[in-house]
Amino acid sequence: MIVRRKASQRRVSQDDLMTIPLSGFFRVQLPVLIVLLCQPLVVANEPKLEAGVQLPTLEVKTLSGDLAALPRDAAGHPAVLVAGFSKAASKLSRAWLDNCRTAAASRLGGSGVYCYDVRMLEDVPRSFRGMVERSMRSGCPAELQRTTLLVYSGNDAWRERLGAGDDKTAYVIGCDREGRVRRIVTGQFVETELQSLLEAIDPSPPTTE
Known about the structure:
alpha/beta, Glutaredoxin, seven-stranded mixed β-sheet, 7 helices, 7 strands
């Protein structure tokens, strides 16, 4: 016995789809399209770092392999963060770091100022990161490895916070003992700029006559 399908149950062929009126198609699709277009776009808008604001949390791995978190790990100490976004920026960053460490050690009370080497490395492919880290550790003293921060994510957010338009320069952030930003300097090392930054985050005690 042959069972015939009812007209309402027959399959819709490709030819049938081609004959559906466009007006009907748009009546179905347009409401969905309008809803999608009206959805708000979520855009990361990081506030710029400026004097008086709290340093955003930075949780990373150090070159020594330990975990670090700022400003928590520098609590009670003034801190200088020297950030670079490319290998080309490392020469400028090194000048700031070397002089920061020298100045910190010579300040009254010893090395109360922490100097951090912040390397923005998100653009380094994952497969090369181990090799890059081994290269960076070569010849780097263990005590400096502990203050070298490897930032593999969120680099664009830090660019926005710093207003970083040049990946080939250094960005220097000075924070006080409570983790508040007090001064930001950009560019080549300048001795007077470093002294002003250190004075902003760790004022010298008044002299007594």
